[in-house]
Amino acid sequence: MRRNLEATIETFPITGMFTISRGSKTEAEVVTCTISLGEISGRGECVPYRRYGESIEAVVAEIRSISAAVTEGAGRAELLRLLKPGAARNAVDCALWDLEAKQGKVTVADALNLSPRPITTAFTLSLGDAASMAAEAAKNAKRPLLKVKLGTEDDESRMRAVRQAAPTTRIIVDANEGWTDDNIEHHLRLARQLQISLIEQPLPAGQDAKLAQIERLVPVCADESVHATDDLEALRDRYDAVNIKLDKTGGLTEALRMKAEAKRLDFDIMVGCMVGTSLAIAPAVLLAQDAEYADLDGPLLLARDRQPGLRYEGSTVFPPAPALWG
């Protein structure tokens, strides 16, 4: 029996507006890959990212370009050769994991020898002026972990305002490549003073050599600078942690390999996400089981999620039910 592969575009509204230093959006536009074999179907979702040269249309075309190979039975190992790391491969890889689980009547967690548990996710504060970010921080001050989007000419006022509004909450600062060689040491001193737990991607990817030359007063995490396993070795002298996202690695298969290598190299691990639905986050919840940080709040930012979706209680996210994925 031959498989059937489909790639479709779906849109989910965001609650309010999600803003980072590169721009704002009011909806999450995702690509869903469905691979069917008779009555059984597996699904995977990806979120194309313009920062990495991706578009919705190009990702759909990339997925459809391997339809014949998948129809003839190409599996996850072959997929690593058929597609480059990125959103398209992520959607197909996760659909194959889901299909395999349903065919074998065994969960992905079981296949990975995991006993998954609920985990704590960061909750992201969108970029705004200092007053509006402080107000959002105050509303969410009881959450155990906040992630604060920065990358402006006046990040200091925003950092101070958020810390004052949420004095006991652990905070991750995500500069989104917005700091410079001239101001990074000042911002790191400030972050230590404010008891910030982690700084994510302070300098532009490919322009981060300064991080190897200064004292990192707060641990620094690579995001845009790291995509897949082969990137890790070159970052050992400048980062303390790496953000593993399925849309960067090109799926759970490569993400598992990357996580193992990152651990071997003594990086702390964050498992992150784009703004997508529970279908995109479900495999990442399994990946994040023993990670130092999880940033898997995409569905919490949406006005409407998939049904069924992941179960969230505050900042606690529960492992996916097979009806959703895996």
UniProtKB/TrEMBL annotation:
Keyword Magnesium in annotation: yes
Assigned keywords, A-Z: Isomerase, Magnesium, Metal-binding
Cofactor(s) annotated in UniProt: Mg(2+)
Domain Mandelate racemase/muconate lactonizing enzyme C-terminal residue range list: 130-221
Cofactor binding summary note: Binds 1 Mg(2+) ion per subunit.
SUPFAM superfamilies: Enolase C-terminal domain-like, Enolase N-terminal domain-like
InterPro entries membership: DgoD-like, Dipeptide_epimerase, Enolase-like_C_sf, Enolase-like_N, Enolase_C-like, Mandelate_racemase_C, Mandelate_racemase_N_dom
EC number of the protein: 5.1.1.-
Keyword hit for Metal-binding: yes
Protein family: Belongs to the mandelate racemase/muconate lactonizing enzyme family.
PANTHER family to which the protein is assigned, alphabetical: D-GALACTONATE DEHYDRATASE-RELATED (PTHR48080), ENOLASE SUPERFAMILY MEMBER DDB_G0284701 (PTHR48080:SF3)
Matches recorded under NCBIfam families: racemase_DgcA
Protein name as it appears in the record: Dipeptide epimerase
Organism: Pseudorhizobium tarimense
Lineage of the organism: Bacteria, Pseudomonadati, Pseudomonadota, Alphaproteobacteria, Hyphomicrobiales
